[in-house]
Design brief:
This protein has about 120 residues and is an alpha+beta fold. The protein is built from two helices and four strands; from the N terminus they run E-H-E-E-E-H. The structure holds FE2/S2 (inorganic) cluster.
Length: about 120
């Protein structure tokens, strides 16, 4: 009997933290994260992570995402592997997520998106 081997689980995730920003854009007049500064937050995060040399394996990856279905809290971003959701307003919020969570593993409680917030 052939045994199916499951792939070996890596000891460490490829990225220490992976942050996804919803950059979804809807037609004029419809709500979306893009209508509330999502691109600026993404750009600022990407710039800072690169400027501080935090990119690459074992570090931080900043990625775009489409709608994450939590639009009512937008703009939103989610950090893995913890699966912590954030709602942010400006670059100061992004800086706090970087300095506290992405660099030091401390969740920024004041920016955490409540579980009840959906579409
Ligand atoms: S538009 Fe951003 S979560 Fe839906």
């Amino acid at each position: 009997m052939n045994q199916v081997k499951s792939p070996a689980k890596p000891a460490e995730p490829y990225y220490k933290h992976h942050i996804f920003f919803c950059l979804n854009e809807r037609k004029a007049g419809e709500e979306s994260c893009s209508a509330h500064g999502a691109q600026a937050g993404f750009d600022h995060c990407k710039m800072r992570i690169k400027a501080e040399g935090l990119t690459g394996q074992g570090m931080v990856r900043v990625n775009k995402a489409g709608c994450l279905d939590r639009c009512a809290g937008g703009p939103v971003a989610v950090v893995y592997p913890e699966g912590v959701w954030y709602s942010f307003i400006d670059n100061q919020d992004i800086d706090e997520i970087i300095d506290s969570h992405l660099k030091n593993g401390q969740i920024v409680e004041r920016l955490v998106l409540p579980d009840a917030v959906g579409r």
